[in-house]
Each structure stands twice: as C-alpha cells, then as structure tokens.
Amino acid sequence: MSNMLISAAYAQSAGAGGGSGSTLMSFLPFVAVFAIMYFLLIRPQQQRQKQLKSELKTLRRGDRIVTAGGVVGIVQRNKEDAPEVEVEIAPNVRITVLRDTISTVLTSSAKPANDAAATK
Length: 120
What we know:
This protein is an alpha+beta fold. The protein has a domain at 59-107: SH3 type barrels (Roll), CATH 2.30.30. Helices cover 42% and strands 25% of the residues. It has helices spanning 2-14, 20-57, and strands at residues 64-67, 72-78, 84-90, 93-98, 102-107. It starts with a helix and ends in a 13-residue tail after the last strand. The model has no long low-confidence stretch (mean pLDDT 81). Part of the SecDF-YidC-YajC translocase complex. The SecDF-YidC-YajC translocase forms a supercomplex with SecYEG, called the holo-translocon (HTL). Belongs to the YajC family. This is Sec translocon accessory complex subunit YajC. It is found in: Cell membrane.
C-alpha cells in the first residue's frame, strides 16, 4: 500500500516541468477578466465622470439638478469660482449646496435666464 503512495507522488512531480507556455495559459484568464472589467465597468464610469465634470463647468441659472442626497432643484445662483451653488427646491425655498455634491444635471438651459440677477 505504501508503494502506491510513493509512486503517486513521483507521478505528480514528474509532470510539473511544463514550461513557460503553461504559465502564460494560467494567467490568460486573469488578463481576460481584467479586460472585460475595464471595458464594461471602469471605462464607462470614467467617461461619465468626465461628462459630469464638463456639465458642472457649464452649469447655469435655470438648470435642473439632482444632488447626491436626492434633492432635486433649480439653480438660482452660480459663481464659476465658488464651490457653492444656490438651488431652489420649492417656491421661495433656497438652499446652498456644494458643487461637488451635484450628481446629475437633468436639464440644461440653452441660454442663461438673466445672469445679471445671479451676480448680485
């Protein structure tokens, strides 16, 4: 019986000299999974972040936005260099939100709605 165990151990170690081809083939699934993850998850997310960043740069009075907390409102005052934006969430109810917390720009106005009032 011990003879069977010894011969099985020699048989396993004898086949281990496969070469670099088998090493490459063992890493190929990991490379394929990473490529799939990159093109399905990482790259679209990077493109979405780039698009949101450009939308935030062109944010104007009258644009409808959604904050990260889920608050929907209309931009009332926006200064390009300030990190805050004043948003109207109900008639005569205005709040100040950080520009970084804006997660979506729902509608973008084609032209600003009287920007002279926004620079008071």
